Known about the structure:
Blueprint: H1 3-28, H2 34-52, H3 54-58, H4 62-87, H5 91-98, H6 101-112, H7 119-136, H8 145-167, H9 173-195, H10 204-228, H11 234-241, H12 244-256, H13 262-277, E1 280-281, E2 285-286
Antiparallel strand pairs: 1-2
Helix pairs in contact: 1-5, 1-10, 1-11, 1-12, 2-4, 2-9, 2-10, 4-8, 4-9, 5-8, 5-12, 6-7, 6-8, 7-13
Amino acid sequence: MNTQLKANLMLLIVTMFWGSSYLFMKMGLTDVQEFNLIALRFGLAFILSGLVFHRRLIHADFKTVKYAFWQGTILFLVFASITFGVKSTSASNAGFLVSLTVVFVPLLLAVRYRKMPENRVILGVFLALTGIGFLTLKNQFMINSGDFLCILGALIYTIYIVVTGKLTKGVDSITLGVLQLGFAGAWGLLFSASLERPQLPGTADAWVSVLGLSLFCSAFGFIVQTAAQKYTTPTHTGLLFSLEPVFAAWFAFAFAGERMSIQGYAGAGLVLLSVIITQIDFKKGLRKPGFHTSNAESKLTP
């Protein structure tokens, strides 16, 4: 097996773990509260990543720590939205709605630089909005709070990606990525201590959830993605990461018995198509992914 094939296989495994994160969140929320789950998830991920990259952390300068604070703060807001959202929507819906970040990033960049979005972005936005309607609008033509919070999480994550693109210049990206996990976990602990009763999981399912989110979806995903993307192409990376909502729906179906309606499947298909279209330059092939990059600012979670 050649090096690129191994790297692609590892990225596929990472994508599968990220797809499972929505189910893990629903499992964990049956035993621990939302901010508590965020604190445990990112706190344990920070500890594990810190052990692996401890030499880098020792040499972290003030600039890196400052940037990590801002990144970690935005990351906390992202997952506060998603975690609260998952509690009142399906894991399948959450996976597809959060994947809309891929569509939002080029749209936000077009607004920021006051440029007309490319045709594929306009088409992607149209398909995404149609897909959101099919996924979330029921007989009352109202979006429930869980779906809204997942869309909000995708929007905040879009801001996180754009901000991170600036902050990673001139600092060690791996150190920055590890430290931001610690700050996100610290915010979770602060809010949990203020508004909840922080506790360790009390059931086997909750422990599986926390360990799955911390070890596999966050720490393992971050470390392996950073290493694997050095040996593969942006084309392969973009295609593999676009499978995340598909894995989310599969895990929800296989382990939680979630089933979509025909309308839901149509919406999911349109959202997935919008994600893929925004990655494609019809003249040059796949564009270099703006959602996931080769540095530590790329998607560490869900």
